[in-house]
Each structure stands twice: as structure tokens, then as C-alpha cells.
């Protein structure tokens, strides 16, 4: 068998080549730090909403398989809780636990899954993406706010009610450039209408620009990611994110009778490297910022090997 022709290699190679080019651009200062935020805004506020809306605007809600949600998120939340219990109930513990379960489904996952498995696989992935941040970030926000509240009470300060905190977290995760276009696209699809060409073509062009720009941006971010001094803890987080989570998700999906392409997409989604939202948590709560950055970089670099392994295993199981 020609290894270069294997579909796993064929789909992973362009993804990591683009990340590598972004890394080179970052190291050589072709894309400077001030431009990274602008490029991030371009990706999240314009390119990805166009891709998500257009993809979901042709999906009939009756055809959606919701079993992946029932398999994926109880496992992710269970691992999140176990990680917090293992490390202790504090800010750093919660942020590290989130790093061990939160996948980069958008900037890496969407392009990789489409390259490897085609547009049909995107329906399963986007079903997960639609509530990924909503569930994991909301729960994590509430847990972090409970930690902050406990610290504040210990200092004699007044803290908001837990329900107020939960609502604010839920609203922030819902009104977001990822869930909104998915939900809007699904609602549009149920009307039975089709997008007019004058609207569909610009959305298609914007969506096709998302993949390469997002992957180059991942590489640029990696070029500014220090690993020194945090390698051991970053390895634990990476092991949870890149290996343990996909194993547990795969077992949960198998017990629910999920097979074939949906099973593969779920396991690959779980095996994706750590998402950037974890750093935003660390930044907001002023804890473990350097460790989170190091873990994100290490998880992405090692994904070249761990993700290849997971995808090869799934290719032989299905």
C-alpha cells in the first residue's frame, strides 16, 4: 500500500502544511502580533458564519441524528468533573480540566473532516459544534464562577446568585458567531426555500476562504507559544484531550449503537487538539495563562501523531 495515497495522510497533510506555513510566517514576522486579532475577527465574525449558515441551510432537521450529542457530551462533562476532582476545586484546576476536554472543532476540525470524509460528515460535526461551546463553556463558566464566589465569600465580599451566573454564561455562549449561524441555517432549511445564487455564491466564496486562513492563523499562534517550564502539566492535559477523550467518546458511541461515518466523526472530533477558547478562560480568570498556552501548543503539535493514529484506527474499524 502506498502510504502517501492513504486517505488519512491525504487529508492530514494539507492541514498540517498550512499550520506549518502559518508557523513560518509567525516566526519570520510576516504576520505581526497586531494583525492576529484582526485575522481572528475576520475568521470568526465573517468567514465561519458564512460557512456554517450555508452548510446547514440545506439540512432537513428530521434527518439529523441527535445520538452523537447523547454520546459525546455526557462523556466530556464526566471527564471534566473527574479532572476537577483529581486536581482540586480551584481556578487553575477548572481551566486545566477544560483544556482536557475542549476540542478545536472549528478552526481545525471543519477543514479536516471535510477533507477526510466529505461534506456528508460535516452534518455530524456541525451537530456537535452547534452545542459544543454552549454546553462545555456554559458549565465551565458556572463552575469557575462558583470557585470565584467561594473565594469572594472567604474574603467577605458579596457575590451574585448562581442562577444569575448560569444565565449570563448561557446567554454569552448562545449569542455567539458559531451557534447562531448554525441555528439560523437550520431554521432557513425548514422553510423549503433555497438560497438565491446572488446570496449563495458570496457565502460559498467566504466559506471556502475559511479553511486556509484559519489553519494559517493556528500556525501563527503556535509561533508565539512558549512551552518552557510547563511541559509536564501540558503533557497531562494533552493526553486527556488527544487520547483519553476520543477513547471514552468512542466507547460511549459504540454502546449507543452509533457506527460508520457518525462514529468516526465523533471520535476524530474528540481527538482534535485543544481549542483556543480555553486560553480565553485562563485570561479572564487570571490563572494558568502560560500553562494553558503551552498546553494548546503541545496539543496541536502532538496532534500530528495522535490524530493520525486515531484516524488510522477508525479507518480500519469502519
Automatic annotation (TrEMBL):
Keywords: Cell membrane, Membrane, Transmembrane, Transmembrane helix, Transport. GO terms for cellular component: membrane. The keyword Transmembrane helix applies. The chain crosses the membrane at residues 6-26, 38-57, 69-86, 93-113, 125-148, 169-193, 205-223, 235-257, 263-282, 294-317. InterPro entries: Mem_transp_PIN-like. GO terms for biological process: transmembrane transport. The keyword Membrane applies. It is found in: Membrane. It is a multi-pass membrane protein. This is AEC family transporter. The lineage of its organism: Bacteria, Pseudomonadati, Pseudomonadota, Betaproteobacteria, Burkholderiales.
Amino acid at each position: 500500500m502506498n502510504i502517501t495515497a492513504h486517505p488519512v495522510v491525504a487529508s492530514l497533510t494539507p492541514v498540517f502544511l498550512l499550520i506549518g506555513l502559518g508557523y513560518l510566517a509567525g516566526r519570520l514576522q510576516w504576520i505581526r502580533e497586531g494583525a492576529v486579532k484582526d485575522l481572528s475577527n475576520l475568521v470568526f465574525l465573517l468567514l465561519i458564519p458564512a460557512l456554517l449558515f450555508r452548510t446547514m441551510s440545506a439540512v432537513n432537521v428530521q434527518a439529523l441524528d441527535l445520538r452523537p450529542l447523547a454520546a459525546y457530551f455526557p462523556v466530556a462533562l464526566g471527564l471534566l468533573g473527574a479532572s476537577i476532582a483529581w486536581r482540586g476545586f480551584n481556578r487553575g484546576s477548572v481551566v486545566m480540566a477544560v483544556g482536557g476536554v475542549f476540542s478545536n472543532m472549528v478552526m481545525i476540525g471543519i477543514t479536516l473532516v471535510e477533507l477526510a470524509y466529505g461534506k456528508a460528515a460535516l452534518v455530524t460535526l456541525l451537530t456537535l459544534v452547534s452545542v459544543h461551546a454552549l454546553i462545555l463553556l456554559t458549565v465551565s463558566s458556572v463552575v469557575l464562577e462558583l470557585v470565584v464566589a467561594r473565594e469572594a465569600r472567604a474574603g467577605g465580599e458579596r457575590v451574585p446568585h448562581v442562577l444569575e451566573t448560569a444565565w449570563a454564561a448561557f446567554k454569552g455562549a448562545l449569542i455567539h458567531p458559531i451557534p447562531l449561524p448554525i441555528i439560523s441555517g437550520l431554521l432557513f432549511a425548514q422553510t423549503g426555500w433555497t438560497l438565491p445564487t446572488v446570496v449563495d455564491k458570496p457565502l460559498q466564496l467566504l466559506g471556502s476562504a475559511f479553511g486556509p486562513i484559519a489553519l494559517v492563523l493556528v500556525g501563527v499562534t503556535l509561533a508565539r507559544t512558549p512551552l518552557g517550564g510547563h511541559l509536564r502539566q501540558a503533557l497531562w492535559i494533552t493526553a486527556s484531550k488527544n487520547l483519553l477523550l476520543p477513547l471514552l467518546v468512542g466507547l460511549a458511541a459504540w454502546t449507543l449503537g452509533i457506527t460508520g461515518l457518525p462514529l468516526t466523526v465523533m471520535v476524530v472530533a474528540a481527538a482534535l487538539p485543544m481549542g483556543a477558547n480555553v486560553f480565553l478562560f485562563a485570561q479572564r480568570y487570571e490563572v494558568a495563562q502560560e500553562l494553558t498556552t503551552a498546553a494548546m501548543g503541545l496539543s496541536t503539535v502532538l496532534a500530528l501523531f495522535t490524530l493520525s493514529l486515531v484516524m488510522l484506527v477508525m479507518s480500519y474499524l469502519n
